[in-house]
Write a structure and sequence with these properties.
- The structure holds two protein chains of two kinds.
- Chain A is mainly β.
- In chain A, strands 2, 4, 5, 6, 9, 10 and 11 form a seven-stranded mixed beta sheet that branches. In chain A, strands 1-3-8-7 form a four-stranded antiparallel beta sheet, with no helix packed on it.
- Chain A is globular, with a radius of gyration of 13 Å.
- The N and C termini of chain B lie far apart (41 Å).
- Chain B contains no helices and twelve strands.
- In chain B, 0% of the residues lie in helices and 55% in strands.
- Classes of the chains: A mainly beta, B mainly beta.
Chain lengths: 114, 114
């Protein structure tokens, strides 16, 4: 069974530029998550999708971050414009069950904003 | 406020000795509790979860965790540590508050010395 795929693995941009991350979840997983993990901290949930609907985006900085999951499969997370404090690893995860199911994580995208 | 605490940034244990990684939480309602592990240069992996039923749950790699409702804790344990258990461990709590939400702890670095 293929795991969660993410791209790119690394990205370096200057502040005020835009960037997009892509995630392909495990086949059949209805729930998809995007997390931000700053060095030395635990993952912070940015947004959770159930199929193509948003379940929770309470911690997504909506003035600069956006995410979509068209057709309920792949998802993209965008930052525009980026700030220095956005430097982090962005993790995508998926699960069969959005409540009790364990999550399967992708390798992450390490973003550096200079 | 809903929260998860991993009070120890680092735990050091000698190989062959028992280990405990602590997690406490403060959430409303009945939580679902998870442990994940992050090995160096690898993504987060699911270890075990408590949903309901027996308070002692067993997971991957010989780990187990005990749910204690009165102490609001979910400590991770292993009877005999291996050097290969050295990694970063995260406790996560899922709860329902108008929508399903999840919070990760800040992580505990486990170091097993030969």
């Amino acid at each position: 069974e293929a795991g969660v795929a993410q791209s790119p693995r690394y990205k370096i941009i200057e502040k005020r530029q835009s960037v997009a991350f892509w995630c392909n979840p495990i086949s059949g997983h209805a729930t998809l998550y995007w997390y931000q993990q700053i060095l030395g901290q635990g993952p912070k949930l940015l947004i959770q999708f159930q199929n193509n609907g948003v379940v929770d985006d309470s911690q997504l900085p909506k003035d600069r971050f956006s995410a979509e999951r068209l057709k309920g499969v792949d998802s993209t997370l965008k930052i525009q414009p980026a700030k220095l404090e956005d430097s982090a690893v962005y993790l995508c995860a998926s699960s069969l069950d959005g409540l009790a199911g364990e999550q399967y994580f992708g390798p992450g995208t390490r973003l550096t904003v200079t | 406020a809903q929260s998860v605490a991993q009070p120890e940034d680092q735990v050091k244990v000698a190989e062959g000795n028992p280990l405990t990684v602590k997690c406490t939480y403060s959430v409303s309602g009945n939580p679902y509790l998870f442990w994940y592990v992050q090995y160096p240069n690898r993504g987060l992996q699911f270890l075990l979860k408590y949903i309901t039923g027996d308070n002692l749950v067993k997971g991957s790699y010989g780990f187990e965790a005990e749910f204690n409702k009165s102490q609001t804790s979910f400590h991770l344990k292993k009877p005999s540590a291996l050097v290969s258990d050295s990694a970063l461990y995260f406790c996560a709590v899922r709860f329902y508050s108008s929508a399903s939400k999840i919070i990760f702890g800040s992580g505990t670095r486990l170091s097993i010395r030969p």
